[in-house]
């Protein structure tokens, strides 16, 4: 483990090109789970004017030897530290450097570098894992051609993979096998991958638009080979979509995916050899929910799209991470919009942004999409860099229009092919396609926080116009460019006018004619579809919101206006202890039951906002009170529309276990109806849920019934939990959801957490298990923010255990303490005490140091 004292802060203004680069490397691996020998043979060349010391990154490596131009270097010629190796006087502007070191994959629980997962060895190098494999210039602006030889025991490693093209394999006299791989495209170290193990290979193919055949392979551990069909279909759809939308074709003859059980995040775009968290590849109708299927398609798309946005054109430095991630998330969102339902997809993305990114941007971890500094880059794979980054790209596409945006992207990919660039190059391509500068756009990359937009109106007597003043409230912050898609409505719900305004800077004025004999004020729907990532401070009277919730033809805006109705009622209730506004919600819902909406859309409309959505929206952290109000509302809706929900349930009861829009919609609507029915005061519908779980043909049916029965504390709870376990104890991925369901909702889940972590299927070293148990608990506000502080104590204790195992995951868990400063009573103090104890750990990782420091400062 790297000790915290030696880890520097990296500042964006300190970036400078490296003095040296390595343009070519031959890597040799002698695989052994306990002691792998790695040798790198680099072609080194000088970038600068005059020769100076050469620094190679290296962490936790056992140095063996160093050769300069083939000659063993004398120990006086170099120095090894915790962070790497310096060659004091390199032998010329061009030379060969050969270095050899040893590593121990089986002891590498950080899951970064070369590590063991199940029976396989695999790598994770983004952002800075390669330095845990071999001494190297481990920075994204250093691009190399990779030639790779892997040698190992064919019984342990019948399959040995790396990036690019397979060249040859041979059997060695000592019984080992050796394979050669070569990647024709230069790439930075973070895109290097190696996988070796006893893997089952599954195959498919794709013919590109220029009639090239691409072989597709998915490698899985034995037993999972029939769970890959959906992933193959998703991959082929993604390949086709990138051709159809941007004209982008795949550039190698082989594309491989490996499913890995122990994985820190979702998936990784290594050139030609994507590595995936098993839960984002493996699926069949019995074990995967509709949400899982959709995530698989999105993430397969995302990683595939990185082949152009990320790999062919890569990053100059890690500050620009959003250049590949924001852009690629935008591309995968667009892909899913095209493959499913654009309104529903947009609703999901906005909900996610509001629930996760907005709070991150208000809390101690807030940062611009291009962070100004970092200690541990792993801490910056955030919803801000990814999701807000994608919103900024969406904004660009709104300014340019989608056709010009496509031109801009092609310009970017052609002009900067093979280079590591920054967001400025991206903007310049977009400006070329636009034909003029895009003012203030770059400020989106530097300003943190969600812009708060205020709307004021007055009537101009002389022109008989209503003047709406739209202003960015933070007058000190950098000025921005906004796209404001708007529509004006009359009180009859008819559209009077609509359009798209580009706001440059702090203020915009929309002038609209008053309508009718009295020049009535139009009702404005602003930032429709969240045309800019802002938070709108609405002071609209509830009757006007109702008009929008019932009449907005834009499905996304209609949905969010309905949510606003609910928030407006809840806010009134919190302020005054009572509210007359609920009947408006009921009226609006009543009108919805008569509409002929798409089933998935309708189910979203009917779903009552979650506790965390409500608390974030209203900035109210009295969770117990909010939950009481929320449950009362759900019960009232359940009673009011009992007939309708029963009807909907019956109508959608029988579904076919396939992934079509119709069947997915039916399952969702049926589950939403069931959820309301279960809140009927008589408990008479519990039998329905129990039967649904028993008879389920699709995981979406089975797990929802289980979750709801747990949430309502049904008498059958213990039984259904056991039943589910007995059914699925052989499937690790399904068990993740089983663990999560038991701690993810409701109060007092600490006992059950302590029981479950002793369960034989729980494993502290497996991030999926840690996420399903600890993260689910810590994202359950009723338990985590329990006023006694027990939630904080429990999670802090688990963070300490994880610190020595997996710093990246430990720091991710610690980030959830960001919400502590907003809590009442003693909670902020308790959080502070717990975090300070973590800071006193003798081997505190830099990951945790950076995160805890920021949060403690907010407490
Ligand atoms: N680049 C990956 C993506 O597609 C994310 C990533 C960064 C990652 N670090 C990782 C994935 C570590 C797995 C493990 O977004
Ligand atoms: Zn990505």
Automatic annotation (TrEMBL):
The keyword Coiled coil does not apply. It is an enzyme of class 3 (hydrolase). It comes from the Bacteria. Its cofactor is Zn(2+). Gene3D superfamilies: 3.30.2010.30, Neutral Protease Domain 2 (1.10.390.10), Peptidase M1, alanyl aminopeptidase, C-terminal domain (1.25.50.10), tricorn interacting facor f3 domain (2.60.40.1730). It holds the Pfam family DUF3458_C. Residues 230-439 form the Peptidase M1 membrane alanine aminopeptidase domain. It catalyses: Release of an N-terminal amino acid, Xaa-|-Yaa- from a peptide, amide or arylamide. Xaa is preferably Ala, but may be most amino acids including Pro (slow action). When a terminal hydrophobic residue is followed by a prolyl residue, the two may be released as an intact Xaa-Pro dipeptide. Belongs to the peptidase M1 family. This is Aminopeptidase N. It comes from Leptospira bouyouniensis.
